[in-house]
Amino acid sequence: METKTEVFVNQLGYLTEKTKYAYARGFAGGEEYEIVSNGRVLFTGKLNMPLQDRVAGEPVCLIDFSDFTQEGQYILRVKSGDGKVAESLSFKLGSHLYDNLYYASLKYFYLSRCGMEIDQEQGSFWAHPVCHDTPALVYGSDIKIDVKGGWHDAGDYGRYIVAASKAVMDLLLAYEANRSDNCHCEERSDVANRFDILAEVRYELEWMLKMQRQDGAVYHKVSCYHFCGFINPHEEKDQLVVSPVSTTATADFAGCSAFASGFFEKTDPAFAKKLMDAAFKAQKYLDSHEDELFKNPPEITTGGYGDWTAADERYFALAALFYKTGDSSYLDKALPLRQTILDLPDDPMFPWKNKWFEGFGWGMVAGYGTELFLRAKDKITDKAKVKLLEDSMLKSADRILERVKAASFGTSMDRVHWGSCGHVCDDAHLLLAAYDITGQKDYYEGAKKQFDYILGCNPNNICYITGFGSNTVKYPHHRPSGATKKTMPGMLSGGPCEGLYDACAKEKLGPLNLPPLRCFIDDFASYSTNEIAIYWNSTFVYIASKLKMV
């Protein structure tokens, strides 16, 4: 069978002053490429030699046209000696290319607000009356409590503390990155200020505070007993139920609340104090209780967000409290938690259980903790501990960077799990943390390749954010989009998943025996390849901010 030739580009384009990478398949390497506008060839170069990894399953050539800096609209054409020709989708070179995408990615959070009316002016097709505003039953009791507010988590209408905490951390870090000393804020002020990130985050935090019990513990989630069909949020009328407390939810809440408090100290000191008091209260509960790992009660079938350990969540909570207070007792409690995972024996059946990793996903939040400790390194008197933390971050980042350099499409993945688009953004976060430590450009460029992958430099030749790019996701697993038959823009699809965990993916992709990065279907029924989530959007927003793309 003849090998298909194809060229893949960032479909939203490239900033003139940044590096510019594209990819081509079906070529041997060394062929000439051309940058073409209106039939005129403006720039030429040679393809790199191909790389092949397991997840792409085919040889792919990198195209580096970073030296071309002329603003305009182009296609990229590749020719081979035997007559093969492939052309990319049209793309731009210029400035402010991602501003509308960035804004839509943030507006998604507002449109996902629960417990309030979304009016026609703000909501357009997705306007709706107040939803989920009835008291929720505390599981196992006859007590009902007010937990109105927050964001709908993903394709469903549940609200989950571990997911919320990660999303809030990402958005706060994005807010900081937009205002960092070297961000040229006068050039970025329009897109950075069009959306009030702190107001949006506060809406989520106020809901999270309602989820804390009087003794400091935090309920894991609130949802109905079962997922609803593809209906609008105000049409879900079943009984809301608050699931039992968990250590992961309580620790994530403590860390998130402590860190968030600093953002409100000047504008609303009372709210800042409320957040810190809640964080202290949660930590007091953690200090006096063994791990309570969450598992769905038998009557509840909505998302579980369970975990095999709470060591990384406890570590994150202690790091955030150290960052805010400088109290060395938090550091002294945190560092041994790392060892509890490092000391576990290898288990080939569950390889993720035996290594400490500086992760930024909802299931491994250690990276947030280490990042906060390093921000506060001047408060750490034992510099050997600082070096241990820096070395750990760099060791984790180097593993990712090694994959990126050997990958067909420059991705960070050696396994393509559920939510892979979110995972590559989390890996980019890790690479950017290493860049902050070292200043080494390889880390920054590795992170930027994940950004390009999301926006079109992938073997499906698709922009994984709804409403953007020449070839975009149109049918996400997202109830408001399904109910209205109008796809909400600005949502990051979970993307390829080699496990094919839903019936749609199994039926339509299973017989094709595709390589992992091709295991994607743009179908609302495929929750394992095409769902959306607040913590996938939030991590994309963060890397866009940190990479200075807006």
Q: What can be said about the biggest beta sheet? A: 6 strands, mixed
Average residue-wise pLDDT: 95
Class inferred from helices and paired strands: alpha+beta
What ranges have pLDDT less than 50 throughout 5 or more consecutive residues?
none
Inertia-based shape: globular
Number of domains: 2
Give a verbal description of the structure.
With 550 residues, the protein is an alpha+beta fold. It has two domains: 89 residues, Immunoglobulins (Immunoglobulin-like), CATH 2.60.40.10; 370 residues, Glycosyltransferase. Strands 2, 4, 5, 7, 8 and 9 form a six-stranded mixed β-sheet that branches. Strands 11-10-14-13-12 form a five-stranded mixed β-sheet. A three-stranded antiparallel β-sheet has the order 1-3-6, with no helix packed on it. The mean pLDDT is 95.
